[in-house]
Specification:
The structure holds 2 protein chains of 2 kinds. By secondary structure, chain A is mainly alpha-helical. In chain A, 78% of the residues lie in helices and 0% in strands. In chain B, helix 3 packs across helix 4. Chain B starts with 7 loop residues before the first strand and ends in a 6-residue tail after the last helix. Classes of the chains: A mainly alpha, B alpha/beta. The complex binds adenosine-5'-triphosphate (ATP) and magnesium ion (MG).
């Protein structure tokens, strides 16, 4: 008997609950057994997203800081463009990277399509604007505080950027973490440019999409738990690192 | 390199903000020796004048001329702000920051830094976060951070505003010593007693104009204008 509109389907709910329970159980066993495939997929997820994070931070953090201290003609436009790029749909980024790196594309000769490298490139494009934008926000505040002093001390542009980045390193860390969160959970772009190839480009998110499609909710949910766990662990680890460093100094 | 970046000459110097005049036009010459005190009621333009001379406030009209090359002129001045600006670092790192900018090595900076921390009684707080210091301690730290650069010209914007009597005396001693050692000081203050103790000449600002500028003795004994006389008496000036 199908439920009337607006009424909860009791049987369906029970079914879903048991699916979720099965998923948690599956996740537990996958973890306990350190399932080979799971470990491989997890490590690849980390490898891709951490690489993207490092590259995007190396570009986005100094760029955001530079935007905060530098006055130039099209500064407002640059900031508006950066903020707009934050909202780039990953699928579109994936599509563009695909076209650029496909065999007939301008960068086809590198043969990067369907490799982790292509996935990293796509994720760098997705998270760099985000990291730069958040960095810019907090660096602008710090610069407002420091402006007079650093001008008076006759600092050069690089000295200013270095000082701001060092003194604002905790805020920059937060910017990077936001980028990592976006990268590790992203599926649209890496599905397209990576192709979700087993033992080559399969990562947690693409595997979840695949298992869901196949109807293996338990496994999908298990992978989902690992994904969430991973995001939490990386966040905690980085925060812990920064804390210890701070206690050591002050 | 020249011996001194002084005299500093202002000719028809005007500072504006969004087209509105803040101070000026100001004509003045700051000679190579002396201790200049800038006085005047709140909002009369003391801070703006100091910033204009130091190059922090953009010049709208007129000129502000130092002697020597631009690099020299910039490197040989220091400024202590009315609201001390602390770097979000330890006391020690605040003190060593100007030295590190000049490429002084950490080891040779350490002795200088410890020395200065001792002189402002912050030697026990070297590792403390400078943002956590009291208002008065911040002011002393900002002053030490300026003096550590051994500037030829030192601008001070009410450096004793938050200090108690004893600390004020100590800072005055320090400033006199610095002045005797050859640093040219230009300082804004509201403290009449302090002005009398330190000044060799006085700039009296009123409504954005340099109303009187002359020897301190003359100014305190016989101000030229009724407004300056009223100010010295503590009356409200129109
Ligand atoms: N950035 C600014 N924007 C707008 N107005 C300003 C700015 N800086 C200064 N002013 C104005 O210029 C005038 C002079 O200010 P200034 O800070 O130089 O006075 P002051 O003599 O230092 O006062 P105080 O004794 O309170 O420190 C004031 O009327 C102030 O409102
Ligand atoms: Mg002022």
């Amino acid at each position: 008997m199908s439920p009337k509109p607006g009424q909860v389907d009791r049987a369906g709910l029970v079914h879903a609950m048991s699916d979720i329970f099965e998923g948690l159980k599956a996740a537990f066993w996958l973890l306990v057994a350190l399932d080979r495939d799971l470990v491989e997929i997890t490590l690849r997820s980390l490898q891709v997203s951490l690489s993207a994070l490092v590259i995007a931070s190396a570009i986005g953090l100094p760029f955001g800081t530079w935007l905060a201290i530098r006055r130039f003609r099209h500064r407002r436009t640059a900031i508006a463009v950066m903020n707009a790029l934050m909202g780039l749909p990953p699928v579109v980024v994936g599509l563009v990277v695909y076209m650029l790196f496909s065999r007939t594309g301008p960068f086809g000769v590198f043969g990067l399509l369907f490799t982790p490298a292509a996935m990293i490139i796509a994720q760098v494009i997705i998270i760099t604007p985000l990291i730069a934008s958040i960095a810019h926000q907090s660096m602008r505040e710090l610069w407002a505080d420091y402006h007079d002093l650093l001008i008076s001390l006759n600092t050069g542009h690089w000295q200013r950027i270095r000082t701001l980045m060092w003194d604002g390193r905790r805020a920059l860390l937060t910017a990077s973490l936001a980028g990592f969160g976006r990268a590790i959970g992203e599926v649209g772009a890496i599905m397209i440019v990576g192709g979700n190839i087993d033992h080559a480009t399969r990562v947690l998110t693409t595997a979840i999409a695949l298992e869901t499609g196949k109807g293996d909710f338990a496994l999908a949910l298990g992978l989902g738990c690992v994904l969430i766990g991973l995001a939490i662990v990386v966040n905690l680890a980085i925060h812990r690192l920064s804390r210890t460093e701070r206690d050591g100094r002050w | 390199m020249v011996d001194t970046i002084l005299p500093l000459v202002l000719t028809g110097a005007v500072a504006k903000r969004r087209g509105k005049r803040l101070i000026g036009p100001i004509d003045a010459e700051i000679g190579p020796v002396g201790f200049t005190i800038v006085m005047g009621p709140n909002g009369s333009g003391k801070t703006t004048l100091l910033r204009l001379m130091h190059g922090l406030q953009r010049l709208a009209e007129g000129t502000v001329d130092w002697q020597g090359t631009q690099i020299d002129v910039q490197k040989r001045q220091a400024y202590v702000f009315q609201n001390p600006i602390m770097l979000r670092r330890s006391v020690k790192e605040n003190l060593s920051y100007p030295l590190s900018l000049r490429g002084v090595s950490k080891s040779s900076a350490t002795k200088t830094v410890n020395d200065w921390a001792g002189r402002i009684h912050l030697d026990r707080a070297l590792e403390q976060d400078a943002m956590m210091l009291s208002g008065g301690e911040k002011q002393k730290l900002a002053l030490a951070r300026a003096l550590i650069q051994k500037p030829d010209v030192l601008f001070l914007d009410e450096p004793c505003a938050n200090l108690d009597g004893r600390a004020t005396r100590e800072i005055e001693e320090l400033l006199l010593e610095t002045s005797r050692a050859g640093t040219r000081i230009v300082m804004a203050t509201h403290d009449m007693g302090q002005a009398r103790r330190l000044a060799t000449d006085v700039m009296f600002m009123l409504q954005g104009n340099l109303h009187e500028f002359g020897a301190a003795k003359q100014f305190f004994a016989q101000p030229e204008t009724p407004q300056a006389r009223a100010f010295l008496n503590g009356d409200i000036i129109e």
